[in-house]
Design a protein that fits this description.
about 120 residues; mainly beta
């Protein structure tokens, strides 16, 4: 059973920083692109950042220059450094990854989410 588990959310004042982490566990052959999404109350889930297995990154315009995505392929982890936080960054942040399972099929897996709350 493949699982993604996030950690690192919390309550922070505007202008502050957090580091979100996500670890993949279980039996699988490899991980392709890893992503972070976020969903604010009453809104759709939006892509925040993505990173390929080769390290190519992509960011939503709203977080460029403030958020940094990285991964450790040896540890099957992806992180999101979130800086200069704004109240509008408040959301549940979800880890997502395209993982090649033991049946050789690539599927998208999701973590359970971690809450980030930015206070004024």
């Amino acid at each position: 059973q493949v699982q993604l588990v996030e950690s690192g959310g919390g309550l922070v004042q505007a202008g502050g920083s957090l580091r979100l982490s996500c670890a993949a566990s279980g039996r699988f052959f490899g991980i392709a692109t890893m992503r972070w999404y976020r969903q604010a109350p009453g809104k759709q889930r939006d892509l925040v950042a993505a990173i390929t297995s080769g390290g190519t990154t992509n960011y939503a315009d709203s977080v460029k220059g403030r958020f940094t995505i990285s991964r450790d392929n040896a540890k099957n982890t992806v992180s999101l450094e979130v800086n200069s936080l704004k109240p509008e960054d408040t959301a549940v942040y979800y880890c997502n990854a395209d993982i090649r399972a033991t049946d050789w099929q690539i599927r998208a897996y999701w973590g359970q989410g971690t809450q980030v709350t930015v206070s004024t």
